[in-house]
Amino acid sequence: MSLAESTLEELLKFAFPEAKISIKDLVGDSNHYQATIISDRFKNKSRIEQHRMVNDALKEVLKEELHALSIITKTEE
Amino acid sequence: MSKPLFDFIAQEIANNDIVLFMKGSAAMPMCGFSAHVCQILNIVGVKFRDIDILQNADLRQAIKDYTDWPTIPQLYIKGEFIGGCDIIKEMHKTGELLELLKSKQLLNTPE
Asked: Distance (Å, rounded) from C-alpha B86 to C-alpha A47?
């Protein structure tokens, strides 16, 4: 199981074209990432709803290809 | 998805105030994210039921379908899905987790 950082970034950009997105490869194995997504679309949504939006965008890769993804969602302050 | 496993999950979260579906056990977590949530629960000082989804591949899939959440660990409090590691970490940092536990009367705070 592994996934290129560029693929992950593409998927997130496609789902959140308006967002500021940054991705960190936590251990350098293309398998444990931390994604930070800053978008006003998260406004007035619960944390679970915010994470569900991200999970939905990554549905396919979370099923098979990616071992661990830490998600941080924020709105523009 | 097999119905009996959904029933099992429903029963566990109905019968236990705090349930953590995790990789490994609370005594020996098998994943950093699961370990982290255990640590937080220990720090806030609550007892919880740990369910090792690595023991059963069907359960591992069932809990993802049940919650409609793609990752483990998953924390339930009083029958309600609270979140995975990232959310619990954040809630711990902001004090929301303590507030939640307090409001559910799950904290044994000395008077």
From this structure: 10
What's A40's DSSP letter? G
A4, A16, A72, B102 from B80: Cα distances, Å: 35, 28, 21, 15
Q: Is A60 on the interface with B (CB under 8 A)?
A: no
Q: Which CATH architecture has domain A5-74?
A: 2-Layer Sandwich (3.30)
Q: Identify whether the C-beta of residue B91 lies closer than 8 Å to the C-beta of residue B101.
A: no
Q: What pLDDT, in 10s, does the model give residues B63-86?
A: 999 999 999 999 999 999 999 999
Two tokens at A50?
């915010």
Contact B70, B33 (CB under 8 A): no
Tokens representing B17 are 């105030």
Q: What is the ipTM of this complex?
A: 0.84
- Using a CB–CB cutoff of 8 Å, tell me whether B94 touches chain A: no
Cβ distance of B84 and A51 shorter than 8 Å:
yes
Summarised one tens digit per residue, pLDDT across range A36-74 is 999 999 999 999 999 999 999 999 888 877 878 999 999
The domains located in chain B, with CATH, are 3-103 (3.40.30.10)
- B61 inside 8 A of chain A by CB: no
